[in-house]
Each structure stands twice: as structure tokens, then as C-alpha cells.
Amino acid sequence: MTDLYHQAQAAAEYIRSRTTLQPRLGLILGSGLGDFAQQVENDVAIPYSEIPHFPQSTVEGHPGRLVLGTIAGVPIAVMQGRVHAYEGYSMAQVTFPVRVLGLLGVERLIVTNAAGGINTRYRQGAIVAISDHINLTGANAAAGPNEPRFGLLPGSGQRFFDMSAAYSPRLRKLAREEASKQGWTLDEGVYVAVLGPSYETPAEIRSFRTLGADLVGMSTVHEVIIARHMGIEVLGLSVVTNMAAGVTRSAEETEAQPIDHQEVMQTGQRIAQQFTSLLTALIPQLVG
């Protein structure tokens, strides 16, 4: 059986056969945010189904294409959709695309997601920079045999690796400054990841708030773990597409407002212009 490293190599070699572009930056687009890929110039779009060993997206709002090209002159690889463990994929499969991006030469990664807002300061449609995360999925994508050959950057590929600054303070500062230039405030918050696919109960949300979480979702943390294993610098951005269970309940209500995926999709589309404006201006700064 071909090991994970050789599978990732095969995927990277296939992508190189389709384009001469050498991406410096990777971008993973979450639910409802896939339209940002239209900003890529001189693009080559490769369906995940054509890339050897690449997992296939099955969730609405995740088209399942790798788009390579440039934004503001920066060579970039954009994942138009991701896969999740709740779809039945192993953690190795969930994070396989990050492994491939690293082998393609990506040194910085922007991970985006649709998240539920736990912090009551947030409003639906807010964009929040992830400052840290809490992993409550019950797994870690780096578990299993360590593959030091994935350590392409200095200090990476180690069995035990640092996560004290998993979300780069430097990149967050650049993002905050760019948002300020555009006339709005980019808040920061802690993202808690759960396995899904069911949304959280109000009692779970109360417990997450006690733990210090501001946002909740079903993705991202394992991609970030593997990116850090490879020495890739990470910027995380959450779009608060809905308030988490129980957060929007008024004093008079006895039941929390229900949450549905269509609301998530619609909010992602509504803030698309602000999201696009931030990223297109920020991307050239991240590789400078």
C-alpha cells in the first residue's frame, strides 16, 4: 500500500503537470465562501476528482475544485471547498490537501470557515480572525507514524511540534491593519472545533463559553495542526454565519432559535464583498 507521503507526492506531481505555477500561498474556502475563487487570474481549475488520492467534497457550498493562478501578482492555490471528518473521512484524508499544498511550495496558508458565534459581541455576518483554537473533535490529525519528509521548512516535520502560536500573530496584525484601512474592525476570537454533523446544543454552547471559546465549527483545526507540522504559517478567518444555539434566545423565549445550513450559505453570500475586499488587499502583504 502506498504511504501517505508518496500519495501526496503523486497528487502534487499531477497538479504540476497541469500548470507551471508555483504557489507561495494557499487558501481554503469554507461554506458559502467559494465564490472568492473567481478573483484568481490566469487560473487553472482542477476538480478534486481528477487529482490522485484527493478526497471529494460532498457538502453543499463546497464545489470541490483546486484553482491555481494569481491574485495581485501572488501565485496562489485556492481550495474551493474542503472535506470534513463527519463526511466519513479519516483525519489523514481531511488534511491530505494541506500536505499537498506544502509539497507544492506553499509557505503560508489562509484557512476560512463558516462559524457559529458564541461571543455575544459578534453579529451575524461578522468576520473574525482566529487567535487560537480548542480541539474537541476527539482526534488529532498528526497522530500515527510521524513522517519527517513532510518537514520541508526549518524546524518542521518533528514528532512533537509547537502550537503556542498556531495562528500567526504577525499575519493577524496585518489582517487587522488592513480591515482598519477599509473602515471596519476585525475582531479576534478563539475557535472551538467539534466533530459534527449535528449542530451543538444550547448546553454545549454554554460549556464552550465557559472554556473561553468565541466561535464554534466543524473544521479548520486539523488543517492548522498539519500546516504547523509542516512549518506553514497560518492565518485563520471565521465568518459568523449564524449565532450558536441558544445565543439569540430572548428572556421571553423558552426555546432556542433553530439553525439551518441555508442560513449559513446565505450569510456567506451576503458578506462576500467585504470578505473579497479584505483578502484581495491582504494577500500581497502576506507574502512580502
Please specify the SSE layout and strand pairing.
Layout: H1 4-18, E1 25-29, E2 41-47, E3 65-71, E4 74-80, H2 91-94, H3 96-104, E5 108-117, E6 127-135, H4 169-181, E7 187-193, H5 202-211, E8 215-217, H6 221-229, E9 233-243, H7 261-270, H8 272-286
Parallel strand pairs: 1-4, 1-5, 5-9, 6-7, 7-8
Antiparallel strand pairs: 2-3, 3-4, 5-8, 6-9
- Percent range for helical residues? 25-40%
End-to-end Cα distance: 41 Å
Give, in order, the helices and strands.
Answer: HEEEEHHEEHEHEHEHH
Strand order of the largest sheet: 5-8-7-6-9
Largest sheet: 5 strands, mixed, barrel
| Overall body shape | globular
Q: Report the structural category.
A: alpha/beta
Which spans of ≥5 residues are poorly predicted at pLDDT below 50?
Answer: 250-254
Strand content is 15-25%
List the main descriptive attributes of the protein structure presented here.
single chain, 288 residues, alpha/beta, Rossmann fold, 5-stranded mixed barrel, 23% strand
Commentary on this structure:
The structure is a single chain. The protein has 288 residues and is of the alpha/beta class. The chain has one domain: 3-Layer(aba) Sandwich (Rossmann fold). 30% of the residues lie in helices and 23% in strands. The protein is built from eight helices and nine strands. The protein has helices at 4-18, 91-94, 96-104, 169-181, 202-211, 221-229, 261-270, 272-286; strands at residues 25-29, 41-47, 65-71, 74-80, 108-117, 127-135, 187-193, 215-217, 233-243. It has a five-stranded mixed barrel. Helix 4 (169-181) links the parallel strand 6 and strand 7 (187-193). Helix 4 (169-181) packs across helix 8. It is globular. Mean pLDDT is 91; it is low at 250-254.
